[in-house]
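Minutes, project check-in
Item: structure for the 229-residue chain
Input as provided by the requester:
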Amino acid sequence: IFRKVDAVTVISNYLAQYVRSQNSKVPINIIPNGVDLGKFTNHESRIMNHEKVIITISRLVKKNGVGDLIDAVALVKKEISDIKLLIVGSGPLRESLRFKVKSLKLENSIELLGEVSHDLLPQYLAMADIFVRPSLSEGLGSAFLEAMAVGLPVIGTAVGGIPDFLKDGETGLFCKVRDPKDLAEKIVRILRDGQLREKIINNAKALVAEKYDWNIVADKFSKLYGSLI
């Protein structure tokens, strides 16, 4: 396929490197997935004096590290007792994750909500204080961008396409891969450091508006198609 095409589009630098490893001569255009900013509107900070809510929107498969997030929440509870995790998504690991929650006695702190319509995701994000997905691999990570657009600080791993938009301490926080202890430390930090939190939220909103608005993405595709025609 790479030998026959006139151009290739990829959604991240990570995937661009893969294409170059297959065919260094083919023209590569990095055009990311976008965010509907009309749907994923900005919200004010939701940290209150009551429950702190973490949300992850992930297919329940090994690569998304949801099990590591559950283990991290168990550690966070030792410092922040009123913590809650909402897990949005379905997949083959649902029952094993449910068993993990039960074995850690976290049934009152973690909810597996199952599949949710994309149209309803902004409402669920608005219920949370922080978005977390400790991925083992990631092409880009549209769920991160949608959370950033809504106004949630995000925590992710430095894998795949995530470093394209997540700059540690600027637009989010990095945690180590397969390291619940490090992830728990980052969750506590972002919940307790209000100045860092607001800095990350503001920088992330600006980045999404500048580079990931679907209108901007569509314009890039339009120009590419025009150049090929």
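Outcome recorded: The mean pLDDT is 95.
No further action items on this chain.
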